[in-house]
Design a protein that fits this description.
Strand order of the largest sheet: 1-2-4-3
Helix content: 25-40%
Shape: globular
Order of helices and strands: HEEEHEH
CATH class: Alpha Beta
Oligomer: single chain
Number of strands: 4
CATH architecture: 2-Layer Sandwich
Structural class: alpha+beta
Largest sheet: 4 strands, mixed
Number of domains: 1
Distance between the termini: 26 Å
Strand content: 15-25%
Length: 126
């Protein structure tokens, strides 16, 4: 099977209503320095998931550092998105909770742990 390692614009979570729903009714998984907030919910877009990445300004002051961390998170997610076992349409927000600049390997490994835990939680219920 030929996997496509892309993260198209149609899979990016932008709508304010969906983000509010995600934070009011969503569940989360945390493995320092990352946290995943997710919500299996139908939405009008035609993609299996919508994802967003966030780095709080309160913890990482410089915009260039916040952007670098988001870039690392997006790249790590792009390469591991095929490991997700989604129950249907799912909203996701990846949040960086650390206070210092991480390296790519740390982000990749922690994201892998969270994805494995996500798959376990989702299919334990079914």
């Amino acid at each position: 099977m030929n996997k496509r390692y892309k993260l198209p614009k149609k899979n990016i979570l932008k709508r304010k209503q969906l983000i509010e729903a995600l934070f009011t009714r969503g569940r989360s998984i945390a493995v320092y320095p990352l946290r995943l907030v997710y919500l299996p919910e139908p939405y009008p877009e035609n993609s299996p998931y919508l994802v967003a990445f966030s780095v709080p300004k309160k913890k990482i002051k410089k915009a260039v550092h916040r952007n670098r961390i988001k870039r690392l998170m997006r790249e790590s997610f792009r390469l591991q998105q095929h490991d997700l076992k989604l129950p249907g349409k799912t909203l996701m927000m990846w949040i960086y909770t650390g206070k210092d600049m991480p390296d790519y390997e740390t982000i990749y490994q922690k994201m892998k742990l969270i994805i494995n835990e996500f798959n376990h939680k989702i299919y334990k219920k079914v």
